Amino acid sequence: MRLSRFALCAAMLAAFASGAANGLTLDDYTRPNPACFNRAAQPHLTVADTHIHFRPFGGESVSYHDMLKMMGDNGVVIGGAMGIGQRLPWDARPGCDSYQDCRDLPANPTIKNDFVNAANFAEFKSPDRLLVLAMTFPDLAKPAEIPALMALYDKEYPGLFKLMGESNVVKQALFPNGHVPVTEAQIDQWSDFMRILRERDMPLALHSDLGNDEGEPTKYRALIEYVLSKYPDNKIIWLHLGMSSQQKAMDPLNHILLLQGMLDRFPKLYLDISWGVLEENYFSRYRQGYVNFINRNSSRIITGSDYVAYKNKQPAYNYADELRTSSAMNAYLNDEAFRNIALGQTYLTLLGMNNVYNAPQICPSR
Ligand SMILES: [Zn+2]
């Protein structure tokens, strides 16, 4: 008895020494009967960060090894590695790390970052972490080229990529760099690659701004609804609840009602609550309303930091800070929603990985 207690303490010390703030390991997701997760004693930080950009738009990237270390240091066991899909030109001048740094340059979708991520994963794997690679290359305005590029991915890295996106339907932040919203006529032409995604049961994660603060709060609502109506049998993740830095002031109640209506109308729709701007502009303004909404729909909601691996913006662009801000909501959720979202059960089920990986249960509160 004393020995097992000692062993338990040693394991906990080792977990803390490795920086895993919550003590969880990937073993806790695969063992038949792992210890329950004690919310009273553990931090509320997201453990399944489903939205991490392992590469930046331009400039030097935080290294793959450092990305895995940052996940580990912050107790993140599951990571969704998304490109990022867009890159500034390879010969962009120094200082062009984000598209916002160089508005005169295009930031177009490309396979580059996905292939760097895949090469790193193939070489180094992700010891003690579950890393889920995403195809972020699609240019949704040029759907005809997507099936052939998927075939290239299949040839080079068969079975490695589990998700498609983040891809942009409309992202106003990119307008100055030449991005324009996808049109309904282009969405009509998605049918070939959407059929392949359905055959693989592979979700598609879409950035699709709802509107803006210039008097047009639902300017682009019709676009995401068109996608969902046209492809009701595809699993689609609507990222950031449709919000952006261009829309900080929508009425929260109207926002929630709109989201609930969409979930009710489209059974294969999932929502992503990643990105600190949601906490800063919405969750903190109408906490209880969003808590009720998220608790009610937690089997269809995932979360993440939306961190971008800008080496040249360190230490200002800090993973721990992004994770903390985007995790603030977790503390208010009920146990079921906390397990589904912060611990990642919804994500694992959405990806069909719940035959191998499952989040630990939450310890009963006293
Ligand atoms: Zn993102």
Describe this structure in words.
With 366 residues, the protein is an alpha/beta fold. It has a single domain (2-350), classed as TIM Barrel (Alpha-Beta Barrel), CATH 3.20.20.140. It is 37% helix and 13% strand. It is built from 14 helices and 11 strands. It has helices spanning 2-17, 27-30, 64-73, 112-124, 146-156, 184-188, 191-200, 221-230, 252-265, 276-283, 287-296, 319-327, 335-342, 345-350, and strands spanning 48-53, 78-82, 86-87, 108-109, 130-135, 161-170, 204-208, 236-238, 269-272, 301-302, 307-308. The strands form 2 sheets. Strands 10-9-8-7-6-5-2-1-11 form a 9-stranded parallel β-sheet. Helix 10 packs parallel to helix 12 (319-327). The longest helix has 16 residues, at 2-17. The two termini are 25 Å apart. Residues 1-19 have low confidence and may be disordered. Bound molecules: zinc ion.
